[in-house]
Amino acid sequence: MDPGRPGSVGTDRTNRTEPLGPMRPHEPGRSRRSRRSGLARRVGRWVLGGPVWRLTRLVVVLAAVIVAIVLALSAVHLLPRLSNPFAETTVDRSSPALLRSISALSRYEAASGSFQVIVNLDQRSSWLPPLIMGSQTLFVGQGTDIAFVDFSQLKGSAITVSHNRTAVTVRVPPARLEPAVLNVRRSYVFAQQQGLLNRIGDFFSGNPNSQHQVYVLAAQKIHSAAMHSALLTQAQRNTRLMLTGLLRSLGFRQVTIIFGKA
């Protein structure tokens, strides 16, 4: 129909194309990545919100409840106590003690003294500084020393009895000291510093007698302290009281004890 004629309806059949902007080149890698990310999201939603995740949570909750019940029952002694699987076990594989000798004693242990000594042992090299070679040990030692009177050397001439058998005189040797005995359970190394070469030597040698010197020195110091203490005097006083009571029980009224060469 003629669009210019009155009463006629015209239709515009012209194809109009609007500009859509610049065309992007086809990217095959991008579409693959999109498909992969979408698949990963779907798998993640299925695992986290699906039956696998719910089953995992259920197993974890049940295991926690069972452990809590077992620990509670063990605490109230309804179940045997659980042992530590990482605890150390000590096994004594020592051989039985061997008796070497038996000695007959004819002495009277009259007094005993307990001593404590602090040993500060400093060993240094004359050429190297203490940081390289040397050691300093602070040792706390506790031990005892015993004072005794030896009766094995008494002879007949050491005892004098009066004619009426009412008085007696006894000459006994003076009190002596035994070697000091160190209490290893109560003695310990308080502090120790070693040079670099000493540490390396102890690491490779594994010397079990590394502390032997401080033990010996502590025992010697305890013995020296006992020699200068009142332990010997107290031992002779106790010996006099013991012999006096013994001899008076035998009927002697006058008892004299003299300490000296028997």
Structure description:
The chain is α+β, with helices and mostly antiparallel strands and 262 residues long. It has 2 domains: 34-75; 107-259, no CATH class. Helices cover 35% and strands 23% of the residues. The protein is built from 5 helices and 8 strands. It has helices at 28-49, 51-75, 196-205, 212-227, 231-249; strands spanning 107-124, 134-150, 159-161, 167-172, 176-177, 181-182, 188-194, 254-259. Strands 1, 2, 5, 6 and 7 form a 5-stranded antiparallel sheet that branches. A 3-stranded mixed sheet has the order 3-4-8, with helices on one face. A hairpin with a 5-residue loop joins strand 3 and strand 4 (167-172). Helix 1 (28-49) packs parallel to helix 2 (51-75). The termini are far apart. 11% of the residues are buried. Mean pLDDT is 76; it is low at 1-23.
Record keyword descriptors for this entry.
single chain; 262 residues; alpha+beta; five-stranded antiparallel beta sheet; 5 helices; 35% helix; disordered N terminus
